[in-house]
Design goal:
The protein has 364 residues and is of the alpha/beta class. The protein folds into 2 domains: 195 residues, Isopropylmalate Dehydrogenase (3-Layer(aba) Sandwich); 159 residues, Isopropylmalate Dehydrogenase (3-Layer(aba) Sandwich). The chain contains 11 helices and 12 strands. Helix 6 links the parallel strand 8 and strand 9. The protein is globular and about 55 Å long. The structure holds nicotinamide-adenine-dinucleotide, 3-isopropylmalic acid and manganese (II) ion. 3-isopropylmalic acid binds next to helix 4. Nicotinamide-adenine-dinucleotide (NAD) binds next to loops.
Length: 364
């Protein structure tokens, strides 16, 4: 337990600053002004346009030293490196690699009050976690792909035994701690890959099988990623924990978000052995930036995950209690119809913030 925790805040671009500000207000309302100490650092596409740097050294250093990192979102389409890739995503990607944030935990839950795009889905019937490998896979090629003679472009997919083992262990431990799938209460880990076609995914699956031997109490199954994207729409209640390679996890998490109200409802936590970065799954949403309508729930729920992670690391029940309170008031606000326009409501970003902070001010 510490007297206070240093949180490095990187607002980013587009709606990043709008939703990040809400999460800080909510954290302060839940914990008081002193336990978390917020310090803001720049990174992203707008910062690059101003300074020529997307990720300043001071930001890298502060993030590495902080107890946790809170990020809104970064990136502006068209603000790119000479190779055509976006500069704004340097922050997320470099932080993942440099701090070895190998596990990207993305809870997918349909809350009461939120209408799913799936007509049959009821609150509680979608409740699973995507465990995305976050340090290798196709993303290992970031900044290292090659373009030959202007004719052939190559990015290399990398999967290592150590990398697969640690993410698969993470998935099984999450399943052990869970209540199982909504469909049948069974604790189940689904290995999602493309083992039928590519060697690296067949390897992923074989290492998955080896690791699974350590968890005889957990059901296992395989799903090939293309079919998986159909199952997630037709039978989402079947899933408990899904473990998958980096790029597949990226794509499937946005598909999953669509089943629980959209990207605004999708929290995310990226953790390694020593560091944690908490940001929602979505991007900087330039189409709605500056309008005051961004949905902050995914960001607020990511901040609650940050508290749980810190609570666990530092054996600090004050933080886990605050995380639980934040989730409770979020659930209450959603059920009470405090919805932004992406969810069919008319609340502004700040109205959601006010509702959450007012509820936190009431006795539990
Ligand atoms: P996006 O997630 O920003 O937006 C996709 C759609 O979802 C848009 O219509 C947007 O309005 C909507 N949306 C997303 N978050 C929302 C929220 N909180 N409330 C309401 N609606 C929301 O994806 P994109 O448009 O493909 O990418 C935009 C930029 O964000 C790009 O520069 C991309 O590289 C970057 N990006 C950054 C991150 C990150 O920093 N973590 C993640 C993904 C994309
Ligand atoms: C995500 C985002 C990132 C990714 C970007 C910002 C690099 O889409 O966190 O899902 O592709 O992983
Ligand atoms: Mn993504």
């Amino acid at each position: 337990m510490k007297d206070s925790y240093e949180i490095a805040v990187v607002h980013g671009d587009g709606i990043g600053p709008e939703i990040c500000a809400v999460s800080i207000e909510v954290l302060k309302a839940a914990l008081g002004p002193d336990l978390l100490c917020f310090a803001e650092y720049p990174a992203g596409a707008s910062h690059f346009l101003k300074t020529g740097e997307s990720l300043p050294e001071e930001t890298r250093h502060a993030c590495a030293q902080a107890d946790a990192i809170l990020h809104g979102a970064a990136g502006l389409p068209g603000v790119v490196h000479p190779d055509g890739t976006e500069v704004g995503v340097d922050f997320s990607l470099r932080t993942r690699f440099e701090l070895d944030l190998f596990a990207n935990i993305r809870p997918i839950r349909l809350y009461e009050g939120v209408e799913s795009a799936l007509s049959r889905a009821k609150p509680g019937s979608i409740d699973y976690v995507i465990v995305r490998e976050n340090s290798e896979g196709l993303y290992a090629a970031r900044g290292a792909g090659s373009l030959l003679r202007g004719d052939v472009a190559v990015d290399t997919l990398v999967q290592t035994r150590a990398g697969i083992e640690r993410i698969v262990h993470k998935a099984f431990r999450l399943a052990q701690a869970s209540n199982g799938a909504p469909e049948d209460g069974v604790r189940r880990v689904t290995c999602c890959d493309k083992a039928n076609v590519l060697r690296s995914y067949a390897f992923f699956r074989s290492v998955f099988d080896e690791v699974a031997q350590n968890y005889p109490d957990i059901e296992t199954e395989y799903a090939i990623v293309d079919a998986m994207s159909m199952y997630m729409v037709l039978r989402p209640e079947h899933y408990n924990v899904i473990v998958t390679e980096n790029m597949f996890g990226d794509i499937l998490s946005d598909l999953a978000a669509a089943t629980i109200g959209g990207l605004g409802m999708a929290p995310s936590g990226e953790v390694g052995e020593e560091n944690g970065l908490f940001q929602p799954s979505h991007g900087s949403a330039p189409d709605i930036a500056g309008k005051g309508i961004a949905n902050p729930y995914g960001m607020v729920l990511s901040a609650a995950s940050m508290l749980d992670w810190l609570a666990d690391r530092h054996s600090d029940p004050r933080l886990s209690q605050a995380a639980e309170r934040i989730r409770q008031v979020s659930v209450g606000a959603l059920a009470g119809g405090c919805l932004n326009s992406d969810l069919g409501g008319s609340a502004s970003t700040t109205e959601v913030a006010r509702q959450l902070c007012d509820s936190l001010a009431e006795p539990a």
